[in-house]
Amino acid sequence: MPAGMIESICSNFYLLIFKLMPAYSTFETELQVRPDDIDMNGHVHNSKYLDYVLAARFEQMERCYKMSMAEFLERGLSWYVRAAFIQHKIPLHMGDQMLVRTHVAELRSRGVKVEYKIIRQVDGKLSAKGYFDYVMVDRETGRPRVIEPDIVEKYSI
Amino acid sequence: MPAGMIESICSNFYLLIFKLMPAYSTFETELQVRPDDIDMNGHVHNSKYLDYVLAARFEQMERCYKMSMAEFLERGLSWYVRAAFIQHKIPLHMGDQMLVRTHVAELRSRGVKVEYKIIRQVDGKLSAKGYFDYVMVDRETGRPRVIEPDIVEKYSI
Amino acid sequence: MPAGMIESICSNFYLLIFKLMPAYSTFETELQVRPDDIDMNGHVHNSKYLDYVLAARFEQMERCYKMSMAEFLERGLSWYVRAAFIQHKIPLHMGDQMLVRTHVAELRSRGVKVEYKIIRQVDGKLSAKGYFDYVMVDRETGRPRVIEPDIVEKYSI
Amino acid sequence: MPAGMIESICSNFYLLIFKLMPAYSTFETELQVRPDDIDMNGHVHNSKYLDYVLAARFEQMERCYKMSMAEFLERGLSWYVRAAFIQHKIPLHMGDQMLVRTHVAELRSRGVKVEYKIIRQVDGKLSAKGYFDYVMVDRETGRPRVIEPDIVEKYSI
């Protein structure tokens, strides 16, 4: 059987699996550009977009997943960033309002991959998108930890 | 006449003048602590409070004084900070909502002194207070400029 | 010819081309963690690593590529970030010294891909790595521009 | 005796006391402007100067006072900012190198007042000056604490 056919079968199989996989909810947080986010180019500084996503996740952890970052910290847990990716489309400027949409893309035993989109609210255009790869850690040791079942459940919506 | 009496008369005269002086309006902006504002002490980082006041002023410039920072920049003008003072009372923490109240305390030919209070919204307690001394500058040269009459008028509310 | 064989030939051809491609120099900048970079987890905040790479590139633009960011700005040019990726290995802490190594990985007509490594100086361990995808823009319009020959030459070392 | 004479005597007495008071050493730290410190006005953002002073103090705590911030934290102590003042003279720009000079101005039972000057290195001109009023706190409770004798001694140089 030629490689092309195998590839095609695999690809279809993958799509099938994907459709059977649970789809995680997308949540949305409204944020505003702060003047100190603007850099010498007159638009929001590159690394601040990552902080916007962090702010949105924190808000959604409390409001949507019903477990605030404070509760994680109290349980001796924290989320560390293992990797982050951002693709810029349209810069945000002073006074801009944005919608930060995030959803869990992968839920693993010790971590979670979150995909995000930052939307410029005035015209609904995509400003940036990407993902964060978080790992659950023990605050004392800084080492990765298996995500406990009650947290897995909370994140499986 | 002994010095103490002169001092007392001057002091009363000053109070009289002060009461006749125009009182400027106080405006209020609601802001939220962002996770990236938190420092190693687990509360909002000292210098971020100044950024909160800046954010509040920008919002109030547009909404209350009817002249946004963007309009200043377009006219080749900007406000530089000449001095700033902050007194911390109660630290703000992750997730805290705040009210930033500011008012013009002095309107001079080339600058304006703005006093502020940062209130923790949950209990109305004072978190920080202080002032900013701004000077109007020409963006090209960076040099101070006399505030034009239409701007003086806008700031005299 | 089966697809697998074609793939294999292409792959080898690609490797050949890659070996013939010019290799760009790697430059190194020494930086120090600043206390305001530390976040609630007690280590350097995720998005600050991107600012370290930016700082290293600015220093290297002047010292190594002989064209400072100021010179770009004077010529009406700037570099915008199109995409950025970061993978965290070991967190940096208060007082840590680091080496930021960067090299041009791709030089395109309108942009440049820069790969970086952030090394913890005390033990030479890798703290983070990733890449930045920059696009050259006209400062007035914010639109991409073809990189002019003298700049291409400077970046081809 | 008229009030003016009493005032004059008090004033002279104060000057005498002041001359007898111990003078604390001034220490100096060299820092560099980081590109992410630059704001929309093309110079270092107002609140970042406070972070420069913080960075200088941390460096001096370890090098000059022989007790690093890490050691304070390990002993369950931290320094909170009670008040801060800054006066801007000349803005710092991209690529600028600075000297941050600080000295203890007052050593109280629960706190310390530190005065600072930020010098632009290229021409030795004063960029900013002001003070920080720190209070020693118990990290657990966040409450002020009497500074222990060994720390008083270290800070009395």
Q: Could you state the oligomeric state of the chains shown?
A: homotetramer
Main-sheet strand order of chain A equals 1-3-4-5-2
Q: What is the CATH homologous superfamily assignment of chain A?
A: Hotdog Thioesterase
SS content category of chain A:
alpha+beta
N- to C-terminal separation of chain A? Answer: 41 Å
pLDDT < 50 runs, ≥5 residues of chain A: none
Work out the helix count of chain A: 4
And the CATH topology of chain A?
Answer: Thiol Ester Dehydrase, Chain A
> How are helices and strands ordered from N to C of chain A?
HEHHEEEEH
Largest interface in this structure: A-C, 27 and 27 residues
Count of discrete structural domains of chain A:
1
Polypeptide structure, described:
Four copies of one chain form a homotetramer. Chain A is 30% helix and 34% strand. Chain A has helices at 3-20, 48-63, 69-74, 149-155, and strands at 26-32, 77-88, 97-107, 111-120, 125-138. In chain A, strands 1-3-4-5-2 form a five-stranded antiparallel beta sheet. The longest helix of chain A has 18 residues, at 3-20. The first copy, chain A, is globular and about 45 Å long. Chains in contact: A-B, A-C, A-D, B-C, B-D, C-D. At the A-C interface, helix 1, helix 2 and strand 2 of A face helix 1, helix 2 and strand 2 of C. Strand 2 of chain B pairs antiparallel with strand 2 (77-88) of chain D, so a sheet runs across the interface.
